[in-house]
Amino acid sequence: MRALSITLVGLMLVSATGAVAQTPAAREHALLHGLTRDVQPDRMRADITALVGFGTRHTMSETASDTRGIGAARRWAQAQFEQISGDCGGCLTIVTPSATITAARIPTPTEVVNVVAIQRGTGDPNRVIIISGHIDSRVTDVANFADDAPGANDDASGVAAVLEAARVLSRHRFDATLVYAVLSGEEQGLFGGKILADYARAQGWRVEANLNNDIVGNSEGQSGVRDTTRVRVFSEGTKTVETEAQEERRRYNGGEVDSSSRNLARFVDGMADRYLTNFDVEMIYRTDRYGRGGDQVEMLRAGFPAVRISEGAENYDRQHQDVRIESGVHYGDTIDGVDFDYLGQVARLNIVSMAALANAPASSLGVTIEGAVKPDTTIKWQAVPGAAGYRVWWRSTTAPQWTHSRWAGSASELVLPGIVIDDFFFGVSTVSDDGYESPVVFPGPAGSFVSVGDPAPRPAN
Ligand SMILES: [Zn+2]
């Protein structure tokens, strides 16, 4: 989506409470432009080279060796975080949440270990923005833990994006907490995502965003098309944790395309439009690729907003394949299939999105809307500590992006005169005094960014 620039600079509006409010000016930030320049694709090349060098990173591969297997790989990831933390005065806390798992694809009890670095927020540390990728790899037979499984693109590319985000963002301080998560056990059943979701709940984190990077480094699709300008962001339309009562209301009044995850995807799309050149987000209105999954699914089951970021054009000959040449065709996920300039763009998108989210105030809670059989629409929300003000957004019910907005000042409601509630979808964003803006929150439980109720039941694996 190209940016729709709605400029209301200098326009004076009278808010619902009668206070005079002025629209904040710039919505672009020099800090974020600077972060895009700090990304170094060569560091990510070194990361992927190191990860491929462990031979296999299969979840059930050996853990004692220092040169081969998942144990060596995750200790390497931990060492990277320790080095990054050393360079920022100990700004990262490194934890290794784990679980011993037996499942359909893990026949013998196996310890699945995530490596997670936490950069504590300076203002609202309980508000958490997470970037993730998975370190485990596989070949054709998902149970084969012995043969080489380079997993250069699936998903050493995602791990490299996580590490690069930590290197770039750890030089700055943010209001919210940033979490850099290297997950394991994905190929055996999304176990790293589950362990991360459980850890987040146990910590009482208010997770506002999980950007899950899985398969983000290849720019040449199986058809031979090469596209370096496009990345896909997958997001669920309705919440995994929606209750039956909520579903009934949503089915009638709308909200099928306005979950917090979907509005997070819109936010990320807006970041590409503003801060990246020759690189755009293709929003995909799906939780994941057709019939396939990723660790963000477990975050969604816990009620957290989460999206999957994946390259624009996948090459299936290079995923989940024994490394071989057959009839002249190269199979296997080797490092020559990674486009590091492309991966750099994906890392930039993640980094500016995380920084923008972490510098914005928290998203609004308790957003409600009313206006049935009235000529005007009224939208209300709870005040957010630290917010300079709020912006009410609306769009046609068939539009993919928010198109219209009004600045509401510091009020906690806004009347839109002559705007009929039936004809649009509405939302509200929170704005800081320096112009950082949260994602737009659709009213009611369909759009809330806060996890509600118990985690959705997990289907038997
Ligand atoms: Zn993957």
Strand composition percent = 15-25%
What does the average pLDDT come to?
Answer: 93
List the strand order in the largest sheet.
Answer: 3-6-8-7-9-12-10-11
Major sheet size, sense and barrel closure: 8 strands, mixed
Helix content: 25-40%
Bound molecules: zinc ion
**What is the number of E strands?**
20
Query: Using only CA atoms, what is the Rg?
Result: 22 Å
Regions with little confidence, pLDDT below 50 for 5+ residues? 1-26, 453-461
Global structural class = alpha+beta
**DSSP helix count?**
9
Order of helices and strands: EEHHHEEEEEHEHEEHHEHEEEHEEEEEE
Dominant shape: globular
Ends: how far apart?
A: 37 Å
Q: Any descriptors?
A:
binds zinc ion, globular, eight-stranded mixed sheet, disordered N terminus, 20 strands, 461 residues, 9 helices, alpha+beta
Structure description:
The chain is an alpha+beta fold. Helix content is 26%, strand content 24%. The chain has nine helices and 20 strands. The chain has helices at 30-38, 41-52, 70-87, 152-169, 191-203, 244-253, 260-275, 296-301, 340-359, and strands at 12-14, 20-22, 92-95, 98-103, 106-113, 115-119, 124-134, 176-183, 206-213, 230-234, 280-284, 306-311, 324-326, 329-331, 368-370, 377-380, 389-396, 404-409, 413-416, 424-431. The strands form six sheets. It has an eight-stranded mixed beta sheet, with helices on both faces. The chain is globular, with a radius of gyration of 22 Å. The two termini are 37 Å apart. The model is unreliable at 1-26 and 453-461 (pLDDT under 50). Bound molecules: zinc ion.
